[in-house]
Specification:
Layout lengths: L4 H5 L3 E7 L5 E13 L18 E6 L2 E8 L2 E8 L4 E8 L2 E8 L5 E13 L5 H13 L4
Parallel strand pairs: 1-7, 2-8
Antiparallel strand pairs: 3-4, 4-5, 5-6, 6-7
């Protein structure tokens, strides 16, 4: 698997861990919460930044770099550790979810965790609209 190529060929949830070196440990975890409400919860004031379609937000420090992108109807977060220690990638797009962890150094511990919070309106949508929402979530259950 190169980069996010697994998302194009995988369906449902695709998880991959590749490790070289000694004493490495990696976990890919997914948590999906589905709730009903009239609207999504408000973001805390002054926290985070809105991600606009087609945009990439980046950041870096001594530990490595991160890039969060909204492309092709999905989102992606890529983390590159400093010193050629490895990388982690998460993508959610078109009913699929990909997690990829690559470790290239020694004595690394990585928890690659995705949390997806879905809010369905509780104002009595039509059966067709509700079925569409549930069908999209069901596609992620194909483990």
């Amino acid at each position: 698997m190169i980069g996010g190529a697994g998302l194009a060929s995988g369906q449902g949830v695709t998880q991959s861990v590749r490790a070289a070196g000694d004493g490495n440990s990696a976990y890919n975890n997914i948590n999906i919460n589905v709730t009903e409400a009239n609207q999504a919860p408000a973001l805390a004031a002054g926290v985070g930044q809105a991600l606009i379609s087609g945009q990439t937000i980046t950041g870096s420090n001594a530990a490595g770099s991160v890039a969060v992108s909204a492309l092709n109807g999905g989102i992606q977060m890529a983390i590159q550790a400093s010193g050629n220690q490895g990388s982690a990638l998460q993508q959610v797009a078109q009913g699929n979810l990909l997690q990829n962890t690559q470790l290239m150094g020694n004595s690394n511990l990585v928890n690659n965790m995705t949390q997806l919070n879905v809010v369905l309106r509780n104002n009595g949508p039509s059966t067709g609209a509700l079925d569409c929402n549930l069908s999209t979530l069901n596609a992620l259950r194909k483990f």
